[in-house]
Amino acid sequence: MSDRLTHVSLFSGIGGLDLAAAAAGFETVCQCEWADYPFYILQKHWTVVTTFRDIPTFTKEEFFENTGIEQI
């Protein structure tokens, strides 16, 4: 098991809570935001983080496939 602190950001907005999580030592492994403007802000500032658009269809399989994190 890894000692790194990670989190999934749902209903991310423009990433305010993600910035706070990073300051606390957490790594954002993926984000989910449906609104266009916040989505593009997230893509601009978190270039290596997978950003999903649709929370109702967000599945664990899609998460593991897109983030490269190994399922345990």
Detail the poorly predicted runs.
none
Count of β-strands: 3
| Residue-averaged pLDDT | 89
Structural class by secondary-structure content = alpha/beta
What oligomeric state is this? single chain
Strand line-up of the largest beta sheet = 1-2-3
**Number of helix segments?**
3
Strand content: 15-25%
Can you characterise this structure?
The structure is a single chain. The protein has about 70 residues and is an alpha/beta fold. The protein has three helices and three strands, in the order E-H-E-H-E-H. It has helices at about 15-25, 35-45, 60-65, and strands at about 5-10, 25-30, 50. Helix 1 links the parallel strand 1 and strand 2 (about 25-30). The protein is globular. About 15% of the residues are buried.
Can I get a quick summary?
The chain is α/β, with parallel strands linked by helices. The protein has three helices and three strands.
Name some characteristics of this structure:
alpha/beta, about 70 residues, 3 helices, three-stranded parallel beta sheet
Please render the helix and strand layout as text.
Layout: E1 5-10, H1 16-23, E2 26-32, H2 36-45, E3 50-52, H3 60-67
Parallel strand pairs: 1-2, 2-3
